[in-house]
Amino acid sequence: MNSSERVMAAIQGKPTYRRAVALTLSLYGAKLINCPLKEYYNNYKLYAEGQLAIRETFQPDILLAPFALPLLGAAFGSRIKYFANHPPNIAKPVLSNPNDISSLGMPDIDTDPILKYIRESLREMVSNADGEYPVSAVALSPVDFPIMILGIEAWLDTVLFNHDLTKRILEISTKFFLDWTSALFNDGATCIILPAPFANLRIVTRKFLTKTAIPNLKESFAQCLGPLILHHCGTSYHDTLPYITDMPNTIGYCIGKEDNLAESRNAIGSNTLLLGNIDGPSLYKRDPEHIYKQTCEIIEDRKEDPHFILATSAADIELETPEENIQAIIQAAKETHLEKAGM
Amino acid sequence: MPSDQYGSQYECIETLISLFIDGDRDEAGKLLRSWGQQHSYHDAISDILEPAISKFGHDWGRTERVSLGQGYVLGKVAEDIFELAASEYSKQIAPAAKGPVIMGNIEDDNHALGRKLVITFLKINGWNVIDLGNDITAEEFIDTAVKHNASIIGVSAMILRTAMNIKGVRQLLIKRGLSDKIKLAVGGAVFCQRPELVDEVGGDGTANNAILAPGLFDNLMQKTRIKGSV
After folding, report:
1. Prediction pTM value
2. Which one of A18, A76, A245, B68 has the lowest number of neighbouring Cβ atoms within 10 Å?
3. Tell me: the pLDDT tens digits for A218-237?
């Protein structure tokens, strides 16, 4: 059984010999090929080479196209800053005033150099994978993308206090979401992962979630050309999951480190993918034995859950993480065989 | 709108909390202005807003009832009523009596929202705050603190990678022999999710949300005084 088959089995709830593993190793590829991050996040050949090295070194079952969402903001004119040890971030959003949204130009998805970098990375990775393993893209939902052009505070202020302007911004954001995800699916993305802070009750009010965010997401997700996975985005999903379990085209939910796997499973139902629950960003400071043990415990806990994929939560695994810490997860998954409940 | 529309003081506090939870800035403002018109804006703050904030802050981060958005609404409501009180009852409002303290986001961190909320609640509690903004180096924090004779530096970071840059502030405080004189408060979303980070970056304390920040700063100030008197 190859990685694609293993992941497909998890989606369909079919038996597998071992658990599928998804690790957030977008950044880490740069370390394996010893590539400065500014080059890594601008040259698609280097990014794809780094991800090939990830596959050869760790053999995770899913690889990620560039996980650098601020690049989307940069394509619209936001200023980004590159760092030596982590992905680029927004230094200055393109709009200082949300009311200027009508002046915002839409980048050409086929010719914009930043968007081309992401798409060519994805296409190169899909070509390298040759069906052996899935390649997921990472994007932002219509209710989250405005963060990249306005900043969190201005967008939060808008959604809380200016309904009409929120609606206008969401029209633009939704158009970009649909165009962008269509392009990514056409480029070969197996699925698209959507970190969604503005569809999370730890960030927004219940009123915004239920009256604005969820209706928008339902309508836009229904038009997507492929499967989506909603991601907790660094904060707990516990309170939010019950509200977002019936989203169109959504095949799975990736939970946070503080979320309980069994409770999350109850919230999303028994036939949807559940992903987690290893804290990716803190792996650098733990020892491999402890990581191995924790991974075995998670697999044991989920042994009767065929729709579970062992995954790291939150942001990228840090560059300073020793390789043996990552190998400990893979090793535990390979050595902990599944024997029960249709496995 | 008469204040009796909202009932007794207790009922007003409970209603105000409900309005914060709904994120309803307009109605919350109306309630406080109504109480202020019948009593005074100073009373609206001390009798209604402050008890509501206290209760709300206790829940913030503990239950799904309180989100960042709701905290943001609360901050805006507080700013609105303080502005009214300051303009019409300036004699009754105590000027900033505590501090100064230095606030900023650590080097490479541009997520200002949490810091701004903390500053709002520090000011409400009488702190004189010098806000340095985003992307501030260890040298800038400490040089400013020394220049203004500040006893507390408050450093904010939203994500793990930038939070680790706070170590530089601690290292520089040690290098300059200032650890007893200047306390380091750390905060931001990542510290709520990873409380062990406070020690890891060398922080002297944190608060789980902006409402609890003034209490933290009071405690840290007391520690510098105790240390100074030894």
Report:
1. 0.88
2. A245
3. 999 999 999 999 999 988 99
